[in-house]
Design a protein that fits this description.
binds zinc ion
Length: 250
């Protein structure tokens, strides 16, 4: 399985419109971060987790891979803003695109972009409602959705085999931790170095790594306080920062 980090930026992107790169080095290309989403490819099957507002340029950069399904983590703009670009591809190619998310998040997507779900496109987009902790299959891959607390809201983390993607998360319930047990490669959202109400910050993230003990952890959804080179130097063994376009072989 191959995982491409299409984007690893925070909700405001890096550089942001207001803060630029903040304290991070503006001359480090790996500090340029588009909004967070990933591409998973295995045996000819292409799955996206989220479609941020830069998904078009991200997929062009990745060589326009074939996408069979999208898994959504939650209905925040930085994770869903690019949904229309994928809808356009599906319509042009006359293919069915399977979209997975919780009923709450799928309703939010419909409200944000009602035209994406016009009746004439119903054959192109196939919505699937998921339930936290209830696994399902996309082709040969078993997907386990994990409920995550995200401030006053919630999000879904996904486990596929030994790999898990957990972003926009502040707390995971015991049932979720149980299902994450044995994960060897973990992509974990970590926005900042300071306490944050909606996301784990760096000290919490490192505590979680000690708890789960994956072989490799990659930090994503990183904001302006997370300078790439500084992190590379200071993170413990087995933990490293993502960068846009990074490829992880599972
Ligand atoms: Zn986010
Ligand atoms: Zn969010």
């Amino acid at each position: 399985m191959k995982v491409t980090i299409l984007g690893c930026g925070p909700s405001y992107g890096m550089p942001s419109l207001t803060r630029g790169f903040g304290p991070s080095d503006p001359n480090e290309p790996k500090n340029v971060r588009t909004r967070s989403d990933i591409l998973i490819e295995d045996k000819g099957v292409g799955i996206l987790i989220d479609t941020g507002p830069e998904i078009r340029e991200q997929l062009l950069r990745a060589g326009t891979p074939k996408i069979h399904a999208i898994l959504y983590t939650h209905a925040h703009y930085d994770h869903m803003g690019g949904a229309q670009d994928l809808r356009n591809v599906a319509i042009e190619k006359n293919e069915v695109l399977d979209i997975y998310g919780t009923p709450k998040d799928m309703l939010a997507l419909r409200r944000q972009m009602p035209y994406v779900f016009e009746p004439s496109h119903q054959k192109t987009l196939s919505l699937h409602y998921i339930k936290p902790y209830k696994s399902f299959k996309i082709k040969h891959l078993e997907i386990i959705p994990i409920f995550q607390h995200h401030g006053e809201s919630s999000s879904i983390g996904y486990r596929i085999g030994d790999f898990a993607y957990c972003t926009d998360v502040k707390k995971i319930d015991p049932e979720g931790w149980k299902l994450l047990k044995g994960v060897k490669t973990w992509v974990l959202g970590c926005v900042t170095t300071r306490v944050n109400a909606k996301h784990v910050h760096l000290p919490e993230a490192l505590k979680w790594v000690k708890k789960l003990k994956p072989e490799r952890t990659y930090l994503t959804h990183m904001g302006s306080k997370m300078d790439y080179k500084e992190l590379k130097k200071t993170l413990p063994k087995g933990v490293e920062p993502c960068y846009d376009g990074m490829v992880i072989k599972i």
